[in-house]
Structure formats: structure tokens, C-alpha cells
Amino acid sequence: MAPPAPLVRSARQLWQCQWRLLMGGLGPADRQGRYRRPAAAFTALPPLPEDAAEPGGHVLIVGRSCPWAHRAWLTWSLRGLAPTIETLMVVPDPAAGRWRFSQPFEGCDTLIELYRRSGADPRARATVPALYSRRQGKILVNESARLIELLNGWPAPADAPDLAPDIDRAAIAAWRERLQGDVNDGVYRCGFARTQAAYDEAETALFAALDAVEASLADQKGTGWLCGGPVPSLADVVLFPTLIRLELVYAPLFGCSRTPLWQLPHLWEWRRRFHGLEGVAATCFPAAWRADYFGALFPLHPSGIVPAGPDLATLVAGPFPAAPGGRPR
Ligand SMILES: N[C@@H](CCC(=O)N[C@@H](CS)C(=O)NCC(=O)O)C(=O)O
């Protein structure tokens, strides 16, 4: 038997109130209900450390599900930095809402301890990615946008690609600027919106940016990378972590489902090719992504049930068969 209407009404009101409170725990919002990403602790681009070339002198701390960590991990992988920088995976602790180390690292059980030891403001969020210097005994930078720039200038094997060559610098910077707000953060602005208007604004900007990328890839007679060079650039690197999670997480959980990626054939093909680059598939963990997002973001998904999703292999399959008229089937 259905519960009486007044009970349903008051349960809804109570839930709305609790939902707003819980959403506050995910991040701040402005007065219009737009999600505002909080500032990080070590955001400035540090100089290249003197001991950068020393084997194992630095540790890149990442979490599997985090797209911001993913871009740093991809940069590390594409440039072959394993000889000088170790990677270390932290694991989520959803009950406590923090990252912890699988085994104590530098005497710390949790990432927040390492942040405190590095001199972070006690109120700062302990986020991934973070680059740790063993010699200095502290985190050097934890803002992924700066970290990938640092890693792009890090001493690397002779055949390592430059992901921000001078000739494409302006185009790379322009794409990165747009992608960072409208796409990388844009999916979070959709998912963490507190009002319909805030969601609509973020969602429109997200798909407008993806349409712009699609148009640019379609126009470009070059190599199929975003800035036209022979190798992907940092613009491609930052786009990939968001796009590879689109059907798996952001469409079903954050409401980013207006245009399925198969309707953007050049982007589909771009994603397939990027995923095929050496070392990229090893950074992709679709089951862990889904478990972490659906399991941890309680206010968005209170049941905690992890729904079945598409097989990643089907998302990077192709080339996409074109139907008459050039549209994919
Ligand atoms: N500005 C940071 C954001 C990183 C970030 O928000 N990471 C999330 C995981 S996706 C995190 O570690 N959150 C933990 C927390 O907020 O306590 C960057 O781009 O590096």
C-alpha cells in the first residue's frame, strides 16, 4: 500500500533539506546553486627540482578514479618518466571521505597526514594528484593543471614527446582553458549543481564545448589530434580522462547525456586512438571508476548500488561505421 500523501510530502521536504546539507559536503556552491571547485593547497608551478633526474627521487600520488590525477598519470606515462618518478596509488576511504595509503608512506597512513607534514593549511583538502619530493620531504604541487606542465618539462628519455611544443603553444593554451572549465570541471558543475538553472548552464556549456571540439577535429586535415601536431598535446591529455568516463560515469550519474559520444564521430575516433596509445589503457579502470563514483557520492546516489555499465572495449571500438549521409549508425 502506498504511504499517505502527507507522509510523502514531509519525507520529501526533509530529504530536500538533508540533500542540500550533504551536497555542501561535496563542495561549495554560489547563491545560484552553481558548483564552485574549492581552491587547492600547493597550486603554484614550482621550479624544476635540482634532483629531478635522480631515479626514484619523486613520487606521483594518484587515485584510480580521479580524472585530475589521470591527466598527470597520462603525462607521466606518455613521456616515459618511470625511471625518475615513481607512481603511488592511494585508495578511497568513503566512510571517512579521504584518501589513504595501502601501506604507510613516509610514516603516514592517510594523504591528509602527508599534506599536514608538508605544511598545508589544516583546512586544506588533501587531493590527488600530488607530486612528492623525497629529498625535500614534502609535496611540491597538487594542482593538476600545473603538474602536467612540470612533468612536460621533466628530464625524460630522448624519444619522449614534447606535449606543448612552442609552435602549438597558443592553441594548446586556448583549448586547455576552455576544456578545464566547460568540460573537465563542467561535468562536475552538472553533477554537483544545486538548482535546475545551474545544471542547465553547465550542461549547455559542456556540450557546446564538445561540439566545438568535434567541429575542430572535423575541419582539421592534420593528424587528428586536437592541436594538429604529430603527437597529442596537453590539450588532448586533459580531454581524455573526462571523455573516457562519459558513458561509464558522467552520463548516468552527473546527467551529462544530451549527446551520446557516438553522435560525435570525430571525437569517438579521437578517443579510440588516444586510448590505443602506448601506456594509456593501463591507466583505465572502468570497474573501479564506477564503484568509486557510484559508491562514494552518497548525495547523488544514496542507494550506493553500482549499476552495470557499458564494456570499455565497446567504447574504444571502431572506426565507427558511417551510415549514408556521414552519420554514424
Ligand atoms: N585542483 C585539483 C583538484 C583535484 C581533486 O579535486 N581531486 C579529488 C579527486 S577527483 C580529490 O582528491 N578529492 C579529495 C577531497 O576533496 O578531499 C587538481 O586539478 O589537481
Which percent band covers the strand fraction?
5-15%
Helix content: 40-55%
- Please tell me the overall pLDDT: 92
The name of the CATH architecture of the largest domain is Up-down Bundle
What's the total helix number? 12
- For the biggest β-sheet, the strand order reads 4-3-2-1-5-6
**What kind of sheet is the major sheet?**
6 strands, mixed
Cα separation of the termini:
45 Å
Q: What is the number of beta strands? A: 6
Shape: globular
In this entry the ligands are: glutathione
Written as H for each helix and E for each strand, in order along the chain, the element string is HEHEEEHEEHHHHHHHHH
Rg over CA atoms:
21 Å
User: Which structural category do the helix and sheet elements fall into?
Assistant: alpha+beta
CATH topology of the largest domain: Glutathione S-transferase Yfyf (Class Pi), Chain A, domain 2
- CATH C-level class of the largest domain is Mainly Alpha
Low-confidence stretches: 323-329
The number of distinct structural domains comes to: 2
Topology, element by element:
Layout: H1 5-26, E1 58-63, H2 67-78, E2 85-93, E3 98-105, E4 108-110, H3 111-117, E5 130-133, E6 138-141, H4 144-152, H5 169-184, H6 186-191, H7 196-219, H8 234-244, H9 246-254, H10 265-276, H11 286-296, H12 312-315
Parallel strand pairs: 1-2
Antiparallel strand pairs: 1-5, 2-3, 3-4, 5-6
Helix pairs in contact: 2-4, 2-8, 5-7, 5-8, 7-10
Bound molecules: glutathione (GSH).
The site of glutathione (GSH) has 12 residues, from loops.
